[in-house]
Design a protein that fits this description.
The chain has about 800 residues and is α+β, with helices and mostly antiparallel strands. The chain has five domains: about 30 residues; about 280 residues, TIM Barrel; about 120 residues, Immunoglobulins (Immunoglobulin-like), CATH 2.60.40.10; about 100 residues, Immunoglobulins (Immunoglobulin-like); about 230 residues, Jelly Rolls, CATH 2.60.120.200. Helices cover about 15% and strands about 35% of the residues. The chain has ten helices and 49 strands. The protein has an eight-stranded parallel beta barrel with strand order 1-2-3-5-6-7-8-9, surrounded by four helices. Strands 32, 35, 36, 38, 43, 44, 45 and 49 form an eight-stranded antiparallel β-sheet that branches. Strand 1, helix 2 and strand 2 form a beta-alpha-beta unit.
Length: about 800
């Protein structure tokens, strides 16, 4: 027995030794003391979306003005550190991509943070795409070489126990074994580091996570997801990190109200709800640290800082939950700290949503609130019932009403009435508008105004455009200088700005005087409906936005009947509403003049496209935003003149044009194009959208095919079920070297195909809300996700029109 026990002991020791050996081989990373990292709160930051972009042109959205940053690149980051630190951020994790790209911005931020002298930290975020160990090692080394001594000496480069923290954004090009080799090689030259891997991108699984933990020191997150996607991820990730890898870093991400650039591939924010829900999910997971993704992923109106205020609502919410995360009491105010959130626009057929948010109050905590909806003149359209908010914690009162209620209006303006303590009722000025939109939401965004930061004025109506007062419509058929007038009724104390806003964006500004009368050039509206406001800002950043003056031409007068997809009931249905014709958006590309690499929109929406490859920074239009058409590749298309002297655009089969943003209308719509084919024998896609809203093909035998099917991608990368497909085919052919007009009409019930104004085919077709997502269009080829053209067509195109209504044949351009 004694011998057996000895043998068993020896075997046990061997097994334990082997287990220790295997563990050492599997988890070779040095011991990590993560004490200093606990309770930290971060945000990932894209250096190409800097917070000092101007509000005019291809720069930042209206939110940026509350920063009012200096033009000096280092001192700008000093200001960022000083302003964001107060809200509870530990620092930023800033991206550096291939070949040390954008590292100059990183270095500016590092130096600016040092000058701020408040311990704001900057962590390394590597967005790399190399697919070999050697390539990845060399790529990372370029960044480390530039950072040099800063890796160990700079006071604001984030380190844990002296080890720089490095976040790997896209690990999927290498497996865990290869990452071990990369990390070993880099550390042999530059010293030990703390490596975090992104576990929220791609298709993470427990198996993938466990593999990564053999190479990395922990996880962080970056990416766009839905609320349900985040919940599912945290459900399996949280127990694994706490139970299997308690010594590894567990950094969880709070997801912002993020709209992914122009193709709508992000999240529908639903005001602040998804942001607040994300915080609650992350707090429940009890991570070591939190990152808020992605603070500076901003380009023009595709923004994630929607509050337009000095006291940004997302920062205030962060400040509140960060205190809870750290086990501290949330900050309080002596008087009610209220915010009013409303959508920038609401699509007819959908809910119009509002929120009133209140943060903890130190003294009298009960406040009565009543939300009112008005027109631009202040006329009351609807009042919700009065509610009581007890501000002992963050409270949110939610409101919604069917947008169809206001189909006779262009916009509604919220206003908040409050009663607190023994004070009488007070009312805010009219708040920024929720525009009533048809066919397409031009923004997936919201306003959020702080009640305590509003400027009150003596007479909100005391400004005009050529004597047209707020709430009225000014008719302008030609662009030119027009008088925009503000008088002394707008006086405020201190330094201030006065801005003229067009469609929510800055058109002009002055700091000289509030009493001014200036000629300002207004773009001719053509077929568009534009809206103008005066905005005031005082030295503390408080704001006032005037009532709206609408500007239109004499084009498209009267009213039209529009089918809408009403989803406000349990059973969605097609309804019909009467709206102003000018409220229906459309884009028109005549292709009748040489405009270089621009596909110029003549509709008045200035929703210009790009001939050649498209990208966020080189397409220019302002239905969603106001940008510039920049340099690019050879367009592979020519502007030519036909025998009748009219111009057209000719593709050579290798080129295409792309129209980004909100272009393919999800519901009632018409797609028109005239083509002059140059070859038979091959299927050629003439026009295609990214999410199957429309595809027009000239078949090898000359017939025209129109196709629409279920969307392949919905909100936040979800994959809707592909539950329908309709294909139409023309009876006649589109002949070689002759012009043929094609029109596809969708009335939410049926899809119709017309050739030269004559009906060719029709079939019933159900609508899908997922068609609202991912909607660029390619001319001259097909469109793959999210906006990559696949050139196909060889021949001429002209008279392209994409209309947000089901037009009749009498309204087609070919007539």
């Amino acid at each position: 027995m004694k011998i057996l026990i000895q043998k068993f002991s020896i075997i046990t020791m061997v097994l334990l030794t082997f287990a220790t050996y295997v563990q050492a081989q599997s988890y070779p990373r040095p011991e990590l003391d993560k004490t200093s990292h606990l309770g930290t709160v971060w945000s990932h930051a894209n250096p190409w979306f800097q917070p000092d972009r101007p509000r005019i042109g291809a720069g930042g959205g209206p939110d940026f003005a509350w920063h009012r940053f200096t033009d000096d690149p280092v001192n700008m980051w000093k200001q960022v550190a000083m302003r964001y630190k107060d809200y509870g951020l530990t620092g930023l994790c800033m991206e550096i991509n291939d070949n040390a790209g954008w590292i100059n911005i990183f270095l500016n931020a590092l130096e600016g943070f040092r000058l701020a002298d408040n311990d704001m930290q900057l962590a390394i975020h590597l967005g790399l795409r190399k697919s070999s160990v050697e390539g990845m090692t060399a790529n990372i080394s370029k960044t480390m070489d530039v950072l040099g001594d800063r890796l160990t000496n700079h006071p604001n480069l984030y380190r844990i126990s002296g080890r720089p923290v490095v976040f790997i954004y896209g690990p999927g090009t290498l497996d865990a074994k290869e990452w071990k080799q990369v990390i070993s090689s880099v550390e042999a030259k530059y010293g030990s580091m703390v490596w975090l891997v992104n576990i929220a991108h791609g298709s993470p699984t427990p198996k993938l996570l466990r593999g990564y933990m053999e190479a990395f020191d922990g996880v962080s997150m970056y990416g766009c997801w839905t609320t349900n996607g985040q919940r599912k991820l945290l459900e399996w990730l949280t127990p694994i990190m706490h139970n299997e890898f308690p010594k590894k870093l567990f950094e969880a991400a709070v997801h912002t109200n993020y709209t992914s650039h122009f193709h709508y591939g992000g999240m529908d924010p639903h005001l602040t709800k998804k942001y607040r829900d994300s915080w609650m999910m992350v707090l429940k997971a009890k991570p070591d640290s939190i990152t808020v993704t992605n603070w500076f992923d901003v380009w023009e109106n595709s923004r994630i800082m929607p509050s337009y205020e000095l006291g940004d609502i997302r920062l205030r919410i962060l400040q509140y939950y960060a205190a809870i995360f750290r086990g501290q009491p949330p900050p309080t105010t002596a008087t009610p700290n209220l915010y009013i959130a409303n959508l920038t626009c609401a699509l007819l057929g959908q809910w119009m949503e509002f929120e009133v948010l209140g943060f903890p109050c130190r003294y009298e905590k009960s406040v009565k609130v009543r939300l009112e909806l008005c027109d631009d003149t202040g006329k009351l359209l609807h009042a919700f019932e009065e509610r009581t908010m007890v501000l002992d914690t963050l409270r949110v009162e939610k409101y919604r009403i069917p947008s169809e209620t206001f189909s006779a209006y262009r916009a509604v303006r919220p206003r908040l009435a409050t009663k607190w303590g023994d004070r009488g009722e007070g009312k805010t000025p009219l708040l920024p508008p929720t525009n009533i939109e048809t066919s397409l939401r031009s923004h997936l965004l919201f306003w959020c105004r702080a009640k305590q930061d509003l400027i009150k004025v003596k007479d909100p109506m005391a400004w005009s455009i050529d004597n047209s007062s707020p709430g009225s419509t000014y008719i302008l058929n030609q662009g030119g200088e027009r008088m925009v007038f503000s008088d002394s009724s707008f006086s405020t104390k201190g330094n201030r700005w006065v801005r003229v806003l067009r469609n929510g964006r800055e058109l002009a500004k002055t700091t000289l005087s509030l009493k001014f009368s200036e000629p300002i050039e207004m773009p001719a509206p053509h077929g568009a409906l534009n809206w103008y406001n005066l905005e005031l800002e005082n030295s503390s950043g408080s704001r006032y936005l005037s009532p709206t003056i609408w500007v239109r031409s004499e084009d498209r007068p009267g009213y039209v009947t529009l089918p809408i997809w009403s989803i406000v009931s349990d059973e969605p249905e097609v309804k019909y509403v009467k709206v102003e014709a000018v409220q229906v958006p459309f884009f028109q590309y005549d292709c009748d003049q040489n405009t270089g690499k621009m596909l110029m929109d003549s509709s008045g929406y200035r929703h210009h496209g790009r001939i050649g490859k498209g990208h966020l920074s080189n397409t220019g239009y302002n239905h969603e935003h106001l940008g510039r058409v920049g340099p690019g590749t050879d367009p592979s298309a020519l502007f030519l003149n036909d025998s009748d002297g009219n111009g057209y655009l000719e593709f050579d089969g290798k080129g295409a044009a792309i129209i980004q943003g909100g272009t393919a209308f999800p519901y009632a719509s018409t797609y028109e194009i005239s083509i002059k084919p140059m070859r038979d024998g091959v299927d050629e896609v003439i026009l295609g959208s990214a999410n199957n809203q429309i595809r027009l093909t000239r078949l090898a035998d000359g017939h025209i095919q129109a196709r629409r099917k279920g969307a392949t991608e919905g909100e936040g990368g979800t994959k809707p079920k592909l539950n329908f497909e309709v294909v139409l085919k023309s009876e006649v052919k589109a002949p070689i070297a002759k012009w043929t007009n094609i029109a596809v009409v969708y009335d939410i019930k049926n899809l119709f195909l017309y050739i030269n104004g004559q009906l060719q085919d029709s079939k019933p077709l159900q609508p899908s809300q997922a068609s609202e997502w991912i909607n660029p269009i390619v001319i001259g080829g097909d469109c793959s996700f999210p906006y990559n053209p696949k050139p196909s067509f060889k021949g001429g195109v002209k008279k392209i029109r994409i209309y947000g209504r089901n037009l009749s044949p009498e309204e087609f351009l070919q007539k």
